[in-house]
Amino acid sequence: MTRTEYRWLLPSAMADPELPGDRPRTRRTVRDWAVDITAFLCAAGIGLLALTAIDADDTTADVFVLVDSVIGAAACCALWLRRRWPVGLAAVLTVVCIVEPVAAGALMVALFSLAVHRPFKPVAIVGAGALISAPLQPLLRPDPSTGFLASVIFGILLILLVLSWGMVVRSRRQLVLTLRERARRAEAEAELRAEQAQRLAREAIAREMHDVLAHRLTLLSVHAGALEFRPDAPAAEIGRAAGVIRDSAHEALQDLREIIGVLRGPGDTDEGDRPQPTLATLDALVAESRLAGMKVVVDNRVADPRGAPAATGRTVYRIAQECLTNARKHAPGTEVSLTVTGGPGEGLAIEVENPAPTEPFERVPGSGQGLIGLTERATLAGGGLVHGPTEDGGFAVRARLPWPAA
User: 3-class SS at 300?
Assistant: First the structure.
């Protein structure tokens, strides 16, 4: 969803979202029962206080006290309908309270529920009706212990307080819903950014491999053209050119297999010819690095390297190859530790760590694409890779890859 679409949706969808309690549920939850019982008890308590004041008045006949009791009990019982018909219930109780003070508690609960579960317009209409009818009840059923003006002011303030409290609760719930919606949108946008970063990393790897392939194929074309235009060249020169062509073709094929393996999606098949590097050839890679003058300490605890899956073994090999290359460029002269552990069912873990260089050296600029490619490769293989500096200033790369049980 674009930002323009989001702005168009914001006024209608987010200005006054429907709250969880706006629509009545078919079955009440434990929380609903607790709230309803509490509301009923509060309304009944206020009604009992009003009934006690009426009963204490000697001028009120017993039959009127009985009628007040029945109407007050009916008003309190009607609160169980406040979730389904909050507007209608509040309007009816507003009319009833004009002549029945015992229903005042039920009216307060109904107005609060109306303000919580309905938008401002119906709340304003019913609330205005309650404010207009506030002076009528003390006029028709005056309280001998309280003056008319004091009763009107107290009734108006109580109605405004209940309505304001309910609207504050609704506003807070709307804020919570809005924040949750924003959090969901932020998570969705983060996932999109992660997917875009992966796509960009794949494109960068593809461009890099394209450059390598172009170089090798160009070299192959040059030597093939020399053989074509100089068929009378000495045998040694022809053999040397043929060897270069053969090596270039073999390396180009390896690079092509490599880019196909890197760019293969998680759901693609993993069949066909595999590249030569595997977990079993890791020792040869270490030996080659040692011949180049590197200090490499190997701790290979894999009992059967040849039994590792081809994709997993190749990924381990490439991780080790890239890490040794980076250590040779950025920390020459240091001792690199290479640890490989795991087995069928528990997966493979590889850790390559080197300390900070102690002697000055000419830094080799790097693009950082190697570690990005390793992370993407490990993710596509079903595992994960983390890298970063260590506490002593060195650098460490740790990866875990799957190895299904036999």
Answer: strand
Q: 142 and 135 in contact (C-beta within 8 Å)?
A: no
CA–CA distance, 301 with 316 (Å, rounded to integer): 14
Length of the chain: 406
CA 202, 204, 206, 209 dihedral sign is negative
Does the predicted model carry a pTM greater than 0.85?
no
Residue 319 Cα to chain centre, angstroms:
29
User: Each residue of 152-199: pLDDT tens digit?
Assistant: 888 888 888 988 888 888 888 888 888 888 989 988 888 888 888 877
| Angle separating helix axes 30-56 and 62-78, nearest 10 degrees | 170
Single-letter residue type at 186 = A
**Nearest-angstrom CA–CA distance, 20 and 177:** 9
CB 318 within 8 A of CB 277: yes
Under DSSP, the state recorded for 217 is H
- Biggest alpha carbon–alpha carbon distance for the chain: 137
The C-alpha atoms of residue 127 and residue 105 are separated, in whole angstroms, by 15
Pairing assessment for the beta strands 295-300 and 347-354 based on DSSP bridges: unpaired
Q: According to the 3-state scheme, what is the secondary structure of 334-350? A: CEEEEEEEEECCCEEEE
Instruction: Report whether pLDDT(50) > 50.
Output: yes
pLDDT in tens, 116-137: 888 888 888 888 888 888 888 7
- How far apart, in Å, are the Cα atoms of 312 and each of 159, 193, 325, 364? 71, 27, 20, 30
Q: Which amino acid is at 397?
A: V
CA pair distance 354, 338, nearest whole angstrom: 9
- Strand 347-354 relative to strand 384-389: parallel, antiparallel, unpaired? unpaired
Strands (E) in 90-202, as ranges, are none
CATH number of this structure's domain 279-401: 3.30.565.10
Tokens of residue 195, six digits: 């997917």
Residue 211 has pLDDT above 70, yes or no: no
Give bridge partners of residue 389 from the DSSP assignment: 395
Residue 302 in this model has a pLDDT that exceeds 70: yes
How far, in Å, CA of 102 to CA of 54, rounded? 9
Domain positions in the chain: 3-186, 196-263, 279-401
